[in-house]
Amino acid sequence: xxxxxxxxxxxxxxxxxxxxxxxxxxxxxxxxxxxxxxxxxxxxxxxxxxxxxxxxxxxxxxxxxxxxxxxxxxxxxxxxxxxxxxxxxxxxxxxxxxxxxxxxxxxxxxxxxxxxxxxxxxxxxxxxxxxxxxxxxxxxxxxxxxxxxxxxxxxxxxxxxxxxxxxxxxxxxxxxxxxxxxxxxxxxxxxxxxxxxxxxxxxxxxxxxxxxxxxxxxxxxxxxxxxxxxxxxxxxxxxxxxxxxxxxxxxxxxxxxxxxxxxxxxxxxxxxxxxxxxxxxxxxxxxxxxxxxxxxxxxxxxxxxxxxxxxxxxxxxxxxxxxxxxxxxxxxxxxxxxxxxxxxxxxxxxxxxxxxxxxxxxxxxxxxxxxxxxxxxxxxxxxxxxxxxxxxxxxxxxxxxxxxxxxxxxxxxxx
Length: 415
Ligand code: EPZ
Description:
alpha/beta, 415 residues, four-stranded mixed sheet, 24 strands, binds ligand EPZ, 14 helices, 31% helix
């Protein structure tokens, strides 16, 4: 298994570009199933999770080819509605195929999804919603068998604004008769990217705040779409700049989507400037502490940026408090950071970081996708070399993260 060797560095200076958003390209690739024709998707990142989604599409009968950052999916001929366990287990977000497979085939069969260990990853909200829309769901031996009856649009109130459940309802509702209205829908920007794709494919979906309305329609044959920039990748690179210090620029991004992160980094003493689709972070004096960070559904502070921001605060003066309200077990990176000399105390969903004067390079491992990014950030600010194992987690959501670190003046090597 490959690993990353990262050396601590005194300061960063450079400019990197955000790639297409992982959490947008995955549901949109699944959504190509609702459109029996050619779907041209631009600005697709080169990630393990994208490969997993392509494998599932090919298994179902799609013809998929990649031309650089463009993926062309011809979903004219779907030959199956089952997704085998080995493909489901490759990533948590494979459950996003439930809605589009049902919409296209009227049936679906899949095992419960796998993914990174963030605590139990139930799909009860997905199942309750598809049942309401007229789908019969049975579960035996970990396999979910779904059969659509006459699917009619309904009002669905989500008890929690689940991103995945919102996406599955949108995609299934395109095949329901009449209107479906999702209340307390997730408001993450990636959902709006999916809505834009659905409308280009001939669907009719619109958001009004936390409410999304979908009218079941026929879809059209050819669709073309460009994936929005990755706001969590952007946040990660800004946290690198804050942690190490220096002058870092992130291009091709949406500054308005990372305002909760830039606000926290500004509180800590970094200097943030925005020009069109570019965010610049400069930090020369030591970081100070920040107000307590409570992860929340969008537009609150994103849970995916909790670990990268925590890594940026490890050597900040004073204490920084984190409250993880979205996932039950999203502090797995803490024990690995403590091996480097970080001073972090965790009690349930609360983590308190006491700034230390130095961190020490050592052997650590990536515990999950964003925890792995946190290890990279900590390694860039540590004395000596850090060896990070299990970097397949990192490759699920970052395109060759070592290239970004080196482009910013850091020292990273993949072995
Ligand atoms: C999406 O996951 C993202 N993944 C996650 O990003 C992100 O952390 C999460 O949304 C929250 O923003 C993709 O978009 C591919 P949820 P998802 O359904 O859809 C509970 C990353 O690092 N829940 O909003 O799985 C669930 O257990 C990944 O890029 C239920 O209880 O998130 C969790 O505690 C990690 N029942 C919370 O809701 C359900 O049926 C949020 O889940 C569904 C979810």
